[in-house]
Design goal:
It is a single chain. The chain has four helices and 14 strands. With 290 residues, it is mainly beta. It has a single domain, classed as Roll (Lipovitellin-phosvitin complex, beta-sheet shell regions). Strands 2, 3, 4, 5, 6, 7, 9, 10, 11, 12, 13 and 14 form a twelve-stranded antiparallel β-sheet that branches. Strands 1-8 form a two-stranded antiparallel sheet.
Length: 290
């Protein structure tokens, strides 16, 4: 009879070999992003915010309000020019872009951005982002503001690729990433706060459409500054394409708290709000022939 320890060891080797044969590796090695003119990405961003707010003067509560607001945007971006392998010019078409009050005062009210159904040409010129209509004319300022916010990272280096390209990460491994990665990959800006902590833990490796996808648990902390103080903690799923080192989806949610002073300091009001935020991002890529 074989010794028990030997039987266990042989069994472990067999299980490992079986897993490898079934295509179940426990690590990913991220590649360098590779772009071509004609690459298309269909992007979807949804932000939901539920808040309970109170307006105070001293200890007196003057007003209370519960509100839930959702913002959604869907756009299709087609690469039209490259510089050193980086997309520096693109056409963007907005299929949807709006904010809607789902619950609370004025529930059902919806504000559609003026870019819906329209096409814009964008390109990076030095540090400046240029935006025109297809006929070369400048868009109205309200349209430009929406397009510029959506396309602000066009032509800029990818901090995600700079940090992860060429790196091997094993299932269970945790990563502390620079705040710039979350700022760019998830679209954080001054309105959503400044990221101060971004942590990923690789939970699994999936396959979809012939691509290997690294599924992480993510945790993000962000703060606001200035007249309005804000603190945000969100966590959830964060998925990256291994070969191209790019985000394919994210679904994060968590608590948010805000506070601001209004009016003269001697007779001012304080607005306090607490609630929950949910951020969902999806990117469907159609690459031009390589």
């Amino acid at each position: 009879m074989l010794p028990l320890a030997l039987v266990i060891a042989v069994g472990a080797v067999a299980v490992a070999a079986e897993a490898a044969a079934a295509g179940e590796p426990d690590s990913v090695t991220f590649g360098e992003p590779s772009s071509r003119v004609g690459d298309i990405v269909r992007q979807s961003v949804q932000v939901g915010l539920s808040l309970e707010s109170k307006l105070r003067r001293g200890a007196e509560v003057l007003e209370e309000e519960n509100r839930r607001v959702e913002r959604a945007q869907r756009r299709t971006v087609t690469a039209t020019a490259l510089d050193s392998g980086r997309v520096t010019a693109a056409q963007v078409v907005f299929a949807e872009s709006h904010a809607q009050i789902v619950d609370g005062p004025k529930a059902g009210a919806r504000d559609d951005d003026p870019v819906v159904g329209k096409t814009y040409l964008c390109w990076r010129e030095g540090d400046e982002l240029r935006v025109t209509l297809p006929d070369g004319k400048l868009p109205p300022l309200d349209e430009y503001a929406v397009v510029a916010r959506a396309m602000r990272t066009l032509g800029t280096p990818s901090p995600l690729a700079a940090h992860l390209a060429g790196r091997t990460v094993r299932v269970g491994e945790k990563l502390e990433l620079p705040s710039a990665v979350a700022q760019q990959a998830l679209g954080f800006d001054k309105e959503m706060g400044e990221v101060v902590d971004f942590e990923l833990e690789l939970k699994a490796i999936d396959e979809a459409g012939g691509a290997r996808l690294a599924r992480f648990d993510a945790r993000i902390e962000a703060v606001g500054a200035g007249a309005e103080q804000m603190r945000l903690f969100i966590a959830g799923r964060f998925v990256l394409d291994e070969a191209q080192c790019r985000v394919t989806s994210a679904d994060l949610s968590g608590p948010i708290a805000m506070s601001s002073l209004r009016g003269p300091s001697s007779q001012g009001y304080q607005m306090d709000a607490r609630g929950k935020m949910r951020l969902r991002v999806a990117a469907e890529h159609t690459d031009a022939p390589r």
